[in-house]
Amino acid sequence: MACLWFLSAGTLPTVRAATIVWANVGTTFSTGSNWVGSVAPANSIVTDIGSFQAVSVTANPNLTASRSINGLEFTSGTAGWTFTGSGGTRILTLGTGGIVSNASTTQTFNNAGLGIALGAATTFTSNSTGALSFGSSLASFVNGGFLLTLSGTSTNANNLIAEAISGTGGLTKTGSGTWTLSGANTYSGTTNIGTTGGADGGTLVLGANHVLPGTTVSIFGGTLDINTRTDTIGALNLGGGAAGTTANITGTTGTLTLGGNLTYNATNNADGATISGNLNLGGAGRTFTVNDSSAAATDLTISGNVSAANRNLIVTGAGNTLISGNIATGTGGLTKQGTGTLTLSGTNTYTGVTTFAAGTVSVSTIGNGGVAGNLGHAANPANRLVFSGGTLQYTGATASTNRSFTLTGGSSGTINVTNAAQSSGASTTTHLSGAPHPQRPQSPHRRHQCRYGRGRLRRHAGLWCEQRVGDRYSQCLRRHPGHQHPHRHHRRAQSGRRRHRRPTSPAPPAPSRSAAISPITPPTTPMAPRSPATSTSAVPTGLSRSTTARPPPPISPSAAT
Predict the structure, then answer these.
(1) Number of independent structural domains in the chain
(2) Cβ distance 327 to 288 under 8 Å?
(3) What's the pTM?
(4) Pick from 232, 237, 273: which is nearest to 256 by CA?
(5) Which residue range forms the structural domain that includes residue 351?
(6) 309 in Cβ contact with 285 (< 8 Å)
């Protein structure tokens, strides 16, 4: 048995990890004589690398059966090769070796009889001035649930995957080069440019409309060039690469529609993140969360337009954001939250509510209501500008506006006017408070509320109450010594049935006009309930029942002393 075991063990095949060179004498990929050494690469994703080195093409490789290989390489100086399949759909499955091109020529995979599949997470690398091109005529391109990384230093526009990529895996762009996607991709994984804490990921170009599969896009460092295209993604994450990297979206005439929120989160991105393409908020309100980057004065800059059909935009976080494009969200509003600063410099046309909930909104123009400007195109009702804890900072030239605003009860707000044209940086700050006035305690009992006819004053809890013009309710004014009426000769207006008043004790003598006015201490004895049977409503002697109060008589010089 021991001998049999030895013989059995001795017959185990040796795992090869060789580089096998294409001989350029025949076309069939699996035929051994078409490879140097007359041995074809093993049909396995973990063993051999097929190397193409000839300076001229005599025989392009053709798959007459599906084949697996660890990887392919194209050396510098080699010719441009074209891969095909025949006899049906032939699948070339690649392992971790992927495809590496150091040639100055283009290597082409574009045949209806050929399909590409990933058998492991792998990388396609294009260096030098050459390119790797996967055309739209391919039978299929399946990632098999694995991550496909597009890398290299080549900026050749022919680094292209035009066939739709399917599968549950994702796609990552690394290296300083450029890759273009132009297929209607359906892969369900995320799309990344750069890596967390990694170097700049180069440029990923959208070569057609609706290329990205609608999943999350993360730009740690690098550029997504939407070109002139229209596309829809999920959430958008920006920043997080190595020190000195930037996260950018370019393409001033293209539009990227968001299916989720936007988040900027970086500490090392020197220039923050820049979006020059247009953003559409999609089918719901969106939140832009901009976290602070110690390396950038402005963390997120959006020079493209931000549009949507009547959707709300919330900008939050401790970072600073600049939006110079037009915010055109219809009747949707804009809310500033978080401690950071949002600078608006575009001619915005949204007509919804602008809410200053936290942090600062900085503008250089404030037009009249109904005129497009930094604060939108809304009319001038007060409910279109709402202060609820935030700050409005104005940095422009001297101007006037008819815009009204609302201060949310119990909150505060600030209006800061900074003269940016002066080197001194002079500024004026106005603090707003929605807290109740300390001299206007609000009683929980409705009978203690001041509700009296127009032009009438009445004492209530040591305060005199007076109706404001156009308001049903009265407003408590100030304390008066000895509970005296603020106008000694005021004539109370009467209308309808007389009001019954309980008898009151005589008021103490008033102090001289030169004496200081001391506060009134509210009575400690609770008031007796009113009784119509015992109360009277008399008119003081000498006063008629005119509805217009007489003004107080002039003070003689002797009385003033």
Answers:
(1) 3
(2) no
(3) 0.76
(4) 232
(5) 305-436
(6) no
